[in-house]
Automatic annotation (TrEMBL):
The keyword Transmembrane applies. The keyword Transmembrane applies. The chain crosses the membrane at residues 21-43, 49-67, 79-102, 114-136. Keywords: Membrane, Transmembrane, Transmembrane helix. The lineage of its organism: Bacteria, Bacillati, Chloroflexota, Tepidiformia, Tepidiformales. Pfam families: Phage_holin_4_2. It comes from Tepidiforma thermophila (strain KCTC 52669 / CGMCC 1.13589 / G233). This is Putative membrane protein.
Length: 146
């Protein structure tokens, strides 16, 4: 029997395993497109190849899933005092960390030249991911796999 959850005042069925996997793949591809756009538009971000794009998107997705919540909780007072601007610096740090991690693997060609490239890249990745997620809606699309 499928589980149900309350989302914005209405009951929705929780996605199956196939639906969750589909949502993960869709979000991963959205992040890959966002990373590719940032590499194409921001000077100082270097990305070579489709495989590297997917690998960097996976690294960034894992950092955002596991490390970002801890950083947000620990920096919460600063986020409030800065009216959320500290979140941009957290995203910048995570993008720089993703580049550092990618540099440890021979097959991943991704590098960032400096702080400002990471800063503007993080802003652009956030913006593109937000817009694509709103347009595609991975959760609703994944429920079609149930």
């Amino acid at each position: 029997m499928p589980g149900y959850s309350v989302i914005v005042g209405r009951f929705e069925r929780e996605p199956s395993t196939a639906g969750r996997l589909a949502a993960f793949v869709i979000r991963w591809l959205v992040t890959a497109v966002a990373v590719w756009v940032a590499a194409a538009l921001v000077p100082g971000i270097h990305l070579d190849g489709f495989g590297s794009t997917l690998a960097v998107a996976l690294i960034l997705g894992l950092l955002n899933a596991y490390l970002k919540p801890l950083l947000i909780i620990s920096a919460f007072p600063g986020i409030i005092l800065s009216l959320g601007l500290l979140l941009i610096l957290i995203n910048t740090a995570l993008l720089a960390l993703a580049a550092w991690i990618a540099g440890k693997f021979d097959g991943i060609a991704f590098s960032i030249d400096g702080f400002w490239s990471a800063f503007f890249g993080a802003i652009l990745i956030s913006l593109v991911s937000f817009l694509l997620t709103r347009f595609i809606n991975p959760g609703r699309l994944a429920r079609r796999f149930d």
